[in-house]
Design a protein that fits this description.
The protein has about 375 residues and is mostly helical. The protein has helices at about 1-10, 20-35, 40-55, 60-75, 80-95, 100-110, 125-140, 145-160, 165-180, 185-200, 210-220, 225-240, 250-260, 265-280, 285-300, 305-325, 325-345, 345-365, 365-380. Helix 5 packs antiparallel against helix 6 (about 100-110) and helix 7 (about 125-140) runs antiparallel to helix 8 (about 145-160).
Length: about 375
């Protein structure tokens, strides 16, 4: 009965049937406790920690996941330890602790190095693919794009070996997210549209909120604003219907950005404020920094910039991003402040921030953003 419920997870998760899954796992936990079966109890607990992540309760998810790692170590079961460490790594990524996330996920990848196609009971997709894409996302947030691209490519290589649609969709989503952060929008759109098509063709709505959110942001930054707004409105509704709260702050920030591009400033400000509140409530510190940056951009881009408000948000975003090691976001804050000071005719400050942003973009290989910074510097 326990094993059947664990296997049901691999069917219910890609279908986004989270309420049904949460009906089965607590019962499996009770059965394992009654049997005194520590191994099965740990298997159930590992999946329960990830369910807490879906519900946006990252603090409880982290506490349970850390206990799971300790239990796996005590049992001497490296296979269970790899699964527990992997999920704990993803939870740390969501909380903005990217270095810790990489450390845990690398442990899982090292364990699977000789057998990347090794399956795990009840898991949707391969641990190796899953771990590579989350290492890639963490590396990208830190501005380590060469390493991020390597891990994305590895995820795709392994997914193509497995020839499983869910693995392929996960890999494409990971690659698309890295390209989005770096500013390679054509590559991001191509990868994310492939992920979207795989999810739809194989009736796997569970991955769609993450795929479509990144795709909506890529559309907005490419100037395809009408498509972006349609996609992002749809994805927020889809995530709400699934009861998925994790990364809601990022989805809201993407929508706020698209509305700002569309000239809907008041609507954008309201959405961005919701993104900030959600990120703070759910301890998504990296997304909190992104929301702060967006609020700074909104205050700066008005016909009559609200300089004090823009400065407060940009500097709060920069402080948090610096603490978390989010170098692309730090560079964006410098670009935003440079643009703000140019509009207020403070040429010395503007030139200082433009110079910092261009140097950072060049070092990270963020060509799209480097061109924007150079254009802004040239018109200063």
């Amino acid at each position: 009965m326990i094993d059947v419920r664990l296997q049901l997870r691999s069917a219910l998760t890609p279908l986004a049937e989270y309420p049904r899954l949460l009906d089965h796992l607590p019962l499996a936990q009770t059965l394992a406790e009654g049997l005194g079966d520590e191994r099965r109890l740990l298997q159930v607990s590992i999946y329960l920690s990830y369910c807490l992540r879906w519900l946006g309760d990252l603090e409880r998810a982290r506490e349970l996941a850390e206990r799971n790692v300790r239990m796996a170590e005590a049992l001497g079961d490296r296979d269970l330890q790899s699964a527990a460490a992997m999920y704990l790594g993803v939870i740390h990524h969501e909380r903005g602790d990217f270095w810790r996330a990489i450390e845990l996920l690398r442990w899982t990848l090292d364990y699977l190095k000789e057998d990347p196609l090794r399956d795990y009971p009840g898991m949707v997709g391969l641990r190796s693919v899953f771990s590579h894409i989350w290492v890639a996302r963490s590396r990208a947030e830190l501005g380590q794009f060469a390493e991020a691209i390597f891990h994305g490519d590895e995820a795709l290589r392994i997914a193509e070996m497995s020839n499983e649609p869910f693995d392929l969709a996960m890999a494409c989503r990971g690659i698309g997210g890295v390209s989005l952060l770096q500013g390679d929008l054509p590559a991001a759109i191509a990868a994310l549209e492939r992920a979207r098509d795989l999810c739809r063709a194989w009736h796997s709505p569970g991955l769609l909120p993450w795929v479509m959110a990144d795709l909506g942001a890529a559309y907005a930054r490419s100037g395809r604003v009408v498509e972006a707004l349609s996609v992002l409105d749809e994805v927020l509704a889809e995530a709400a219907s699934q009861g998925v709260l994790v990364e809601e702050s990022l989805r809201l920030a993407y929508l706020g950005e698209a509305r700002l591009v569309a000239g809907e400033r008041d609507e954008a400000a309201a959405v961005a404020q919701r993104a900030l509140e959600h990120a703070r409530e759910h301890t998504e510190r990296g997304n909190e920094a992104w929301a702060r940056h967006l609020l700074g951009a909104m205050a700066a881009q008005h016909h009559h910039p609200d300089v004090p408000t823009a400065e407060v948000h940009y500097r709060a975003a920069m402080t948090l991003a610096t603490e978390l090691g989010m170098r692309p976001l730090v560079a964006h804050c410098h670009l935003g402040l440079g643009t703000l000071y140019r509009r207020t005719s403070d040429s010395a400050k503007a030139e200082e921030h433009f110079a910092t942003s261009t140097a950072m973009y060049r070092e990270m290989g963020m060509t799209f953003w480097l061109e924007k910074a150079n254009a802004a510097l040239g018109s200063a």
